[in-house]
TrEMBL record:
This is Beta-glucuronidase. It is an enzyme of class 3 (hydrolase). The keyword Ribosomal protein does not apply. The gene is uidA. Residues 181-274 form the Glycoside hydrolase family 2 immunoglobulin-like beta-sandwich domain. Belongs to the glycosyl hydrolase 2 family. Its EC number is 3.2.1.31. Residues 276-589 form the Glycoside hydrolase family 2 catalytic domain. Residues 13-179 form the Glycosyl hydrolases family 2 sugar binding domain. GO terms for biological process: carbohydrate metabolic process; glucuronoside catabolic process. PROSITE patterns: GLYCOSYL_HYDROL_F2_1. It comes from Frankia nepalensis. One of its GO terms (molecular function) is carbohydrate binding.
Length: 592
């Protein structure tokens, strides 16, 4: 599925602003057909944004169930004869969409796009009513999982991950046009030799019988460098300018569907020419060893929740660059496509993660000690869940396969990984990810209960990704003890002969809290904690990356271990630096 774009043959408009909105905890709207007329008893809600924090009532914040969105939009008159498509960049965690009285789409999964051809419902010049019911319930068969409990106070959502279950239309909604005969997909795989680049492209077309596909590659200055015809081909780039970490050099691949001299459809794709490879304990980009510095992050903002915001996106990248971060992980779900585009342009490297977080019932809200259910069983996470997970991987790869910034797929964060059941669950998912994309390594993030002597999933992976909190959850306040234990554990992991990326290490820190000597929760302790970790990383050759948890403080569900959310941010939630930000800046700018 290609992103909407304006081209000589395509137009798009954002369906944004204030939509009508109504919570439906009783699930009455589906019975009553609320899509058939103007949404009654509605208030206004901004799109894109999560709905939870924009109001002042607990009913919205803690809502479990259906929430209805509705707006009207006029189809441009100039789109006569074109195909009209309605696209949601995301609806968290699932949605059904109607145009006027007609159901046009259903989608499961909160962080990948879906769309519907609504040409039959969208007469050019006419106004259409768009209604979406967005449901936020997490169950054993959703990704991420959860349990909805009936309590005397109403239905409550239990979940096992450590960030707030924001819901709604977080990302842009689009109405766009394509010609009836059109390009439906483009896939590129790039290769590099000493001075030459190769762009292997594949174009999928609908309704283009008898038409020709032309692919034209231009450099960053707009000069054409290669051209080919046919739905599949290889474009060779002499004196190639590679995409590399720190330098997001992009070529432009213009794909055209042509009928003689007439261009029937045209689509442009930015292309970064780079390679990725795991060799021994090294992670190579363009054949050179790469060391990841950066963060695990969240899409998390005051008021907007997970709502995408260009101003914060640009600001967050500026802060990451200021610290010397060269990479981040899309913990714990696929981020807005705008974020990956920005990473492509800025040469920031991305570990791209599915929304499979919390598949481990011995942890709750990031804290060890849940454990009232088995994780994998016919009654809990089962074959049906795995099919939902597989679909999430398909949609992630389909969406993000062409981003040069994405160098590694992460199929899950901290799943249960010590039982035969976990191996049976994950083996087919790793196989699927590799089949969908043989060009990128695949991994999963391991958690502290599954040390090197217990974990069973590492044989399936290309890299070892570890979330470890020595000196925080373990050896709390005892950095000397933590240092010895951490070193011993890392050395045991290094014996696997794979590169190790420490995908999380961090300490909760209240901005403005100072102690001497350094004590947990103080800014001084966060700095000393990071320094301890860095000494250990520098002593273990197989460590090829360090991602601090977290870039910024973020919202969680309420809990006795969380004070107004998770405070492991190097920046506060409103992006003010803690002392750790300066310490990281010093290390990451002086690293070899
Ligand atoms: C983890 C989780 C992350 C939590 C973090 C914490 O291991 O992956 O989602 O927020 O620990 O702070 O406990």
């Amino acid at each position: 599925m290609l992103r909407p774009q304006d081209s000589a043959t395509r137009e798009r408009r954002r369906v944004e602003g204030l939509w009508l909105f109504r919570l439906d905890p009783e699930r009455a709207g589906r019975e009553a057909g609320w899509w058939r007329r103007r949404l009654a008893e509605a208030r206004e809600v901004p799109v894109p944004a999560s709905y939870n924090d924009v109001f002042a009532d607990a009913a919205a914040r803690d809502h479990v169930g259906d929430a209805w969105y509705q707006t009207t939009v006029r189809v441009p008159r100039g789109w006569a004869g074109q195909r009209v498509v309605l696209r949601f960049d995301s609806a968290t965690h699932r949605a059904v969409v109607w145009v006027d009285d007609v159901e046009v789409a259903q989608h499961e999964g909160g962080y990948t796009p879906f769309e519907a051809d609504i040409t039959a419902q969208a007469p050019p010049g006419g106004e259409i009513r768009v209604t979406a019911v967005v449901n936020n319930e997490l169950t054993w068969q959703s990704v991420p999982p959860g349990v909805v409990q009936d309590t005397p106070a109403g239905r409550q959502q239990i979940y096992f991950h450590d960030f707030f279950n924001y819901a709604g239309l977080h990302r842009p909604v689009w109405l766009y046009s394509t010609p009836p005969a059109h390009i439906t997909d483009v896939t590129v795989v790039t290769g590099l030799t000493d001075t030459e680049g190769a762009v292997d492209y594949q174009v999928d077309v609908t309704g283009g019988d008898g038409l020709t596909v032309r692919a034209v590659l231009s450099d960053g200055e707009g000069t054409e460098v290669a051209q080919a015809t046919g739905t599949h081909g290889v474009l060779t780039v002499a004196d190639v300018h590679p995409w590399r970490p720190g330098e997001g050099y992009l070529y432009d691949l213009r794909v055209e569907l042509v009928d003689g001299v007439e261009v029937v459809d045209t689509y442009s794709l930015p292309v970064g020419v780079r390679t990725v490879e795991v060799r021994g304990t090294q992670f190579l980009i363009n054949g050179e060893p790469f060391y990841f510095t950066g963060f695990g992050r969240h899409e998390d903002l005051p008021v907007r929740g997970k709502g995408h915001d260009d101003a914060f996106m640009v600001h967050d990248f500026a802060l990451m660059e200021w610290t010397g971060a060269n990479s981040f992980r899309t913990s714990h779900y696929p981020y807005a496509e705008e974020v990956l585009d920005h990473a492509d342009r800025h040469g920031i490297v991305v570990i791209d993660e599915t929304a499979a977080v919390g598949q481990n019932t011995s942890i709750s809200g990031g804290i060890v000690g849940g454990g009232s259910y088995p994780t994998f069983s016919p009654e809990t996470i089962n074959d049906a869940s795995r099919e939902v997970h597989a679909q999430a991987i398909r949609e992630l790869v389909a969406r993000d396969k062409n981003h040069p910034s994405v160098v590694l797929w992460c199929v899950a964060n901290e799943p249960e990984s010590t039982t035969q059941a976990s191996v049976e669950y994950f083996e087919p998912l790793f196989t699927l990810a590799r089949k969908l994309d043989p060009t990128r390594p695949v991994g999963y993030v391991n958690m502290l209960l599954a040390g090197p002597d217990r974990d069973l999933l590492i044989p399936l992976t290309d890299v070892v990704m570890l979330n470890r909190y020595w000196g925080w959850y373990l050896n709390t306040g005892d950095l000397a003890g933590a240092e010895a234990n951490w070193q011993a554990e890392l050395e045991a992991w290094a014996a696997h002969g794979k590169p190790i990326i420490v995908t999380e290490y961090g300490a909760d820190t209240v901005a403005g809290l100072h102690t001497l000597p350094a004590q947990p929760w103080s800014e001084e302790y966060q700095v000393e904690y990071l320094e301890m970790n860095h000494r250990v990383f520098d002593r273990v050759d197989a460590v090829v990356g360090e991602h601090v948890w977290n870039f910024a403080d973020f919202a969680t569900k309420p809990g006795i271990m969380r004070v107004d959310g998770n405070k492991k941010g190097v920046f506060t939630r409103d992006r003010r630096p803690k002392a750790a930000a300066f310490a990281l800046r010093h290390r990451w700018h002086s690293a070899p």
